[in-house]
Structure formats: structure tokens, C-alpha cells
Amino acid sequence: MARKATTLSSEAPLPLSIALPKRLLIPMLNITPPDSDNSVYASTLDYFSSVPWCHALLRDTLCDSSTISSTARVTIPFIPGSRNLPLPQCEQFFGSVLATPDTIPHMLGFFRPDDANHALDAQRPITQAYLLFALGTSLSHYNGIVSGGLVAAIFDVAAGALIDLNTNLDKKDNALSNGVCIATSIKINYLRPVVATGCIVLARIWVESAEERKVFARGELTGSKGERLAEAEFYGTSFRNKL
What we know:
- It is a single chain.
- The chain is globular, with a radius of gyration of 17 Å.
- The protein has an eight-stranded antiparallel sheet with strand order 1-7-10-9-8-4-3-2. Strands 5-6 form a two-stranded antiparallel ribbon.
- The chain has helices spanning 38-49, 52-58, 81-84, 92-97, 148-168, and strands spanning 2-4, 76-78, 106-111, 128-134, 140-142, 145-146, 180-190, 200-211, 214-222, 228-239.
- The protein is an alpha+beta fold.
- It has one domain (42-61, 72-238): Roll (Thiol Ester Dehydrase, Chain A).
- Helices cover 21% and strands 28% of the residues.
- It comes from Ophiocordyceps australis.
């Protein structure tokens, strides 16, 4: 079964300013926006690291970016902006409504640069990112199953985190970081039920193409044993920060 969002024209009216400040918390790269709460990073990383299959994903995480070698396949975690410095005018859904102990108490993103210079090289975008979501017990739509709409929202926020990551890393001259990239279409195939019983799921987003203002990406949602729960296709358009 597939769900496709209503297409948004690139000519549709938008707020005069749609730019967001840099809010991702990435301690391994010494990226700490003002007023960040570093305890959120530590507690979130500790939470997911205590789960064996999540620990396996994060085991290449290093404590100090200066120790990254040219041959290491390093995992660099980050806290999405909605969980580090949520803004009152946006991201209320994941930053407030779903940031409770029985909904989605923990979210952690991470990415794996190709080499020691990739993360901070302005000319080389990050084209793949992962987000871990701890799903609470109050997300049932029917008989202990998570709503398909929430699965769509998880994909959407994960794709947004990849765009934010490129912006926060000051990537240049790429559709992933030029202005603000807004989803114009999301198609989702639901493969297995996502249970609302306190489980953890992993969203992976990767870019297939990014040219001028157009972005095409894919995503998948998997469970603790690697089972594929859903897959998605994204089409996005970059807008200028000021319209």
C-alpha cells in the first residue's frame, strides 16, 4: 500500500522568511550552537548505546574529532534541531508534542563521512544520514500498531535532518544546502506493521540526485533485526531563505 502526498508547486506562497538558525548539536565536530544543552547529547547517546543493536551501529563513534584517521569509517552522532533548540514557531510536533516519555522520548541522528576530511569539506555534501527513534507506548492507531501517518512524519523529519546536516556543516553550491529544501512529494510503501510497544526504529535517508533546486532521495525504516518496515521516495525543491 502506498501513500502519496499532495504535490506542492514551487510557486506556492511561503512565509517571508523560511530560514532556520543552525541548531544541530554535533560535539564530535565541535559544533555546539549557543544555548545548547550538552546533557541532552550525552543522555541520548547513553540511552541508545545501552541497546545492543543500536550500540553496534554507534560503536565506531569517537570521543574526539582530532582522532579521526583517514582510513577510519567513523560514525558521527548528532542531536536534531527539534531536540536541541526547538523553536516556538516550527517543529512543535517532534520538538514538543512527541517529546514525552510515552511518545518519542529519544531521537539521535548519525552519519558516516567517507574520510577524515569529508565532514567539514564545504564542497562535498553529506548524502546519507540515519535517525534512531525510540517509540513509546502511546502511539497506537489501531490494536498496538503505529499510525501510517506517523511513519510518514518520521520519514519527513529524517529527510529534513539530512538537509539540516548539510546546512549546519556549511556545505556550498548544492541543492541540499542552498536555501531551504521543502518536500514536494513523498511516496511511502508500508511493508510491515510498526508496533507501538516501546520499540526502537532506524530511518535511513540517502540522496539519489541533487541538481540545481531539485532533490530526489529514498529512505527505509528498519527494526531491531534489520527487518524492513517501510520504504519511501522523496522529491524536494530548494527555496531561497528570503522570499
